[in-house]
Specification:
- The protein is of the alpha+beta class and 290 residues long.
- It folds into 3 domains: 42 residues, no CATH class; 102 residues, Band 7 domain (Tetrahydropterin Synthase, Chain A, 2-Layer Sandwich), CATH 3.30.479; 70 residues.
- The chain is built from 7 helices and 8 strands.
- The strands form 3 sheets. A 3-stranded antiparallel beta sheet has the order 3-2-5. Strands 6-7-8 form a 3-stranded antiparallel beta sheet. The protein has a two-stranded antiparallel sheet with strand order 1-4.
- Helix 5 crosses helix 6 and helix 6 crosses helix 7.
- The longest helix is centred in the middle third of the chain and has 70 residues.
- InterPro entries: Band7/mec-2_domain, Band_7, Band_7/SPFH_dom_sf.
Length: 290
Amino acid sequence: MGNLFCCVQVDQSTVAIREQFGKFDSVLEPGCHCLPWFIGKRIAGHLTLRLQQLDVRCETKTKDNVFVNVVASIQYRALAGKANDAFYKLSNTRSQIQAYVFDVIRASVPKLNLDDAFEQKNDIAKAVEDELEKAMSAYGFEIVQTLIVDIEPDEHVKRAMNEINAAARLRVAANEKAEAEKIVQIKRAEGEAEAKYLSGLGIARQRQAIVDGLRDSVLGFSVNVPGTTAKDVMDMVLITQYFDTMKEIGASSKASSVFIPHGPGAVRDIATQIRDGLLQGQSAAAATTH
């Protein structure tokens, strides 16, 4: 109907290419335009100015001979000021862009190892964008953004990479566990050493208290009972302690069977052994002093 009244409508974000007798005439902006068809003017086609996206999947190999699929996402649009170039110079824009992406990726990725390819995705994307911008600007297209959205190695390679990562983490965990066990053992040994030291101090103080008590008992008994010697008092104290010990053994319900010699002669033998031990200790101390 518009052609009958020599009018044509161009939608927003779109331009129309007008020809006269098959030759490019002008670019029509969005809106309503007069198109006198009777003098040979017609619409050759429309060109969208919207941002478009092309996803390109390219198979290549890395420097360490691992085949990967690189997925690049190209965002581009036609320039309104160069709409005639974008319309006439390229017959298949998407195929042209895809060819340049293949060329750049297959020239860049084989220079990198697999790990470096993952780390340098931005560098690969920048190389693709620079090459496309330089090539496509001559055809009236602008490259807005280029992204390397994925690098997919073979399934066996991914499984091997995961196993390497898992083994490394297990090694770190084993080292941490060993360090923790080492710290526990050191702390336990330090605690046992401190406990033994304190126990030794307690035993030493206990024996010192016993010696002091025995000395006071001997001195007090000798003063209050004339005619007794220190030996008599010591024998009596030993006998008293001997019977106290027997009483404690008999009163303990958890005590095991204990066989010890019993009788006045046994007490006398114990007293003799203690006295001989004290005399030998005094003789050794005197010899050391001289």
